């Protein structure tokens, strides 16, 4: 039985989202148990089905606007997020799902659950929709402002094995996000990264890809540092939302548009579903000792249940144990040896 810890108090909506999501996940899978870390007084009235669901009580939670993630994680050990993280560290649960504040989640994963000794950094890796209807992995999107080529290489190997084991992609290709597709494009650090990745064993390196290819991507994995990755991800998400609003605006602007919508309604709903992050779950934290998935802060029950489904698959695939043998072959940087 897979035991999944849920930060029940976390996110914009707290138990109003996480409790229904837990019940939905339990109904979907008969091989999981869920531990809700949260306010028992608020959880119990919502818990109409407590089969394979238990509660660890705490009224405390980390604020979504937390200004000092390190301080919060170190001082608020009895918050719902930190309690779930400590339970994972102590092998009381197999994985954690949360929609809490992103930097607190990354910091908690790093400080509490701890980074794999074979990894120099941890990465935040969401699944993004694509034109062909298949997913793409993008990392890092916010855990690291800068990365050395060797650290990018570790992420590339981790993501390659994750794509194979979790999502069944036979031979994942890796693209490096840059301002141009040619090998000589970008800053010196981008050129160094390209030269390192093209010779790195264990990955199928495609070369550079440009931001305008993010949702019509020729590669299975989009590799970048956290600053550029976060900008690219938010641009993709913002464009998708705005396109949806523009489409609604055009439909409502004329009688012809409204009549056309009646014929195109199913197609439009399918289009919206292809671009909806609720379908894929959340962002995975790569490089730590236990699977952690960070759902969107404004996730509804459906999206949060998708995140539980996602972390379940990470545990089932035994991804961490499978990736470790490949990592020691990477040449260590000075920072990694400290």
Across the major sheet, the strand order is 3-2-1-4-12-11-5
> How does the major sheet shape up?
7 strands, mixed
The shape is: globular
User: In DSSP terms, counting alpha (H) and pi (I) runs of 4 or more, how many helices?
Assistant: 12
CATH architecture of the largest domain: 3-Layer(aba) Sandwich
Structural class: alpha/beta
Radius of gyration: 20 Å
CATH class of the largest domain: Alpha Beta
Tell me about this structure.
- By secondary structure, the chain is an alpha/beta fold.
- The chain folds into two domains: 169 residues, 3-Layer(aba) Sandwich (Isopropylmalate Dehydrogenase); 161 residues, Isopropylmalate Dehydrogenase (3-Layer(aba) Sandwich).
- It is 44% helix and 15% strand.
- The protein has twelve helices and twelve strands.
- The strands form two sheets. A seven-stranded mixed β-sheet has the order 3-2-1-4-12-11-5, sandwiched between helices. A five-stranded mixed β-sheet has the order 6-7-10-8-9, with helices on both faces.
- A hairpin with a 7-residue loop joins strand 6 and strand 7.
- Helix 4 runs parallel beside helix 5.
- The longest helix is centred in the last third of the chain and has 27 residues.
SSE layout and pairing:
Elements: E1 2-7, H1 15-28, E2 32-38, H2 40-43, E3 53-57, H3 69-75, H4 80-89, E4 95-98, H5 102-114, E5 123-125, E6 127-128, E7 136-139, H6 149-167, E8 173-177, H7 188-198, E9 204-209, E10 221-223, H8 226-252, H9 255-274, E11 283-286, E12 292-294, H10 301-316, H11 319-323, H12 334-337
Helix pairs in contact: 1-10, 3-5, 4-5, 6-7, 8-9
């Amino acid at each position: 039985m897979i035991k999944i810890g849920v930060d029940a108090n976390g996110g914009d909506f707290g138990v109003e989202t996480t409790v229904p999501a837990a019940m939905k996940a339990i109904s979907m899978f008969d091989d999981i148990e869920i531990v809700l870390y949260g306010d028992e007084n608020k959880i119990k009235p919502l818990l109409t089905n407590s089969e394979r669901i238990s509660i660890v009580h705490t009224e405390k939670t980390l604020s979504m606007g937390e200004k000092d993630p390190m301080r919060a994680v170190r001082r608020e050990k009895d918050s719902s997020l930190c309690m779930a993280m400590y339970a994972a560290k102590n092998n009381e649960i197999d994985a954690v799902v949360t929609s809490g504040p992103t930097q607190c989640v990354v910091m908690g994963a790093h400080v509490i659950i701890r980074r794999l000794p074979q990894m120099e950094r941890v990465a935040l890796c969401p699944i993004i929709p694509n034109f062909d209807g298949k997913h793409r992995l993008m990392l890092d999107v916010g855990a690291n402002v800068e990365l050395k080529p060797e650290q990018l290489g570790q992420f590339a190997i981790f993501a390659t094995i994750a794509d194979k084991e979790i999502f069944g992609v036979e031979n994942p290709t890796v693209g490096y996000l840059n301002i141009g597709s040619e090998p000589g494009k970008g800053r010196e650090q981008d050129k160094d990264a390209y030269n390192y990745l093209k010779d790195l064993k264990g990955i199928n390196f495609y070369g550079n890809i440009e931001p305008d290819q993010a949702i019509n991507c020729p590669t299975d994995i989009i590799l970048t540092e956290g600053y550029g990755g976060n900008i690219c991800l938010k641009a993709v998400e913002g464009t998708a939302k705005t396109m949806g609003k523009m489409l609604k605006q055009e439909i409502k602007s004329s009688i012809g548009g409204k009549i056309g919508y009646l014929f195109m309604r199913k197609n439009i709903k399918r289009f919206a579903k292809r671009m909806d992050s609720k379908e894929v779950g959340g962002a995975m934290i790569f490089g730590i000792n236990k699977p952690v998935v960070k759902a969107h802060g404004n996730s509804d029950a459906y999206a949060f249940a998708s995140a539980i489904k996602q972390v379940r698959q990470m545990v089932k695939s035994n991804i961490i144990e499978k990736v470790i043998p490949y990592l020691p072959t990477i040449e260590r940087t000075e920072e990694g040896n400290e």
